[in-house]
Amino acid sequence: MFCSLIIDSLLHPTISIMSRGSSVPTAAQFFKSIPWCADLLSRPDVVPFIPTCRLEGEDAVRARTQDLLFRRSLNNAESVPHCIGFYRDPASATMSTQSTTLASPLGTPTLYVNSASLLFDLRPGVNGFNGTAHGGLIASLIDEAMGSLILINHIVQGQHEKEGRSLPPGTLDLNNLRVFTASMNVRFQKPVPTPRIVLVTATFVKTEGRKIFLDVRVEDENGIENARCDGLWLSLPLQKV
């Protein structure tokens, strides 16, 4: 996935889309009808959002040449009809008490939002072998989760700047950067039978220069890991792209 993180053309329109998009109530209604998903989404410090791959109407036109795999090809009753994202508000009391344990080593930059999750409703149309989701599809879910974590951080940074607030010292400055997936080391641990709802969580690990290291887990409702990924993203200054 390639995230072109440019404030003027992407960030400001997306703030309202991802926080108050018309699809949020619809997606939330579906997942909140499932007890274990409802428990995740109903926590007081959770902020839900619609991933860019599921924006609709005029909002989708801004990204009409990207995200078509999940917005169009897989967006049907037989494949992946429902998807929603969420993250825990770093400003909440619970998260604030944990923030000191999340710092990257040696004082290197960190992400303000340390982790973001996506819930996917997988149907038999994504099957590969013997009633289970295709491995390539699982890898795509992982990439979507990583991209959402990066984009959410950029959006939150823009919100802080718009309100005249500063991010905590040591936060990675995503202004005027383009970031993209460089490598994914995916370990398939258990098949994912369909139909099935999976939780895909991308978590920041560390930065090293232009490198951003992420850890991604694909889990079922019982917290059993179906897949795990060591993800590496690279950042480039906008003027060098």
From TrEMBL:
Alphabetical list of Gene3D superfamilies matching this protein: Hotdog Thioesterase
Full protein name: HotDog domain-containing protein
PANTHER family for the chain: THIOESTERASE DOMAIN-CONTAINING PROTEIN, UPF0644 PROTEIN PB2B4.06
Highest classification ranks of the organism: Eukaryota, Fungi, Dikarya, Ascomycota, Pezizomycotina
CDD domains found in the cross-reference section: PaaI_thioesterase (cd03443)
Thioesterase domain mapped to chain residues: 130-224
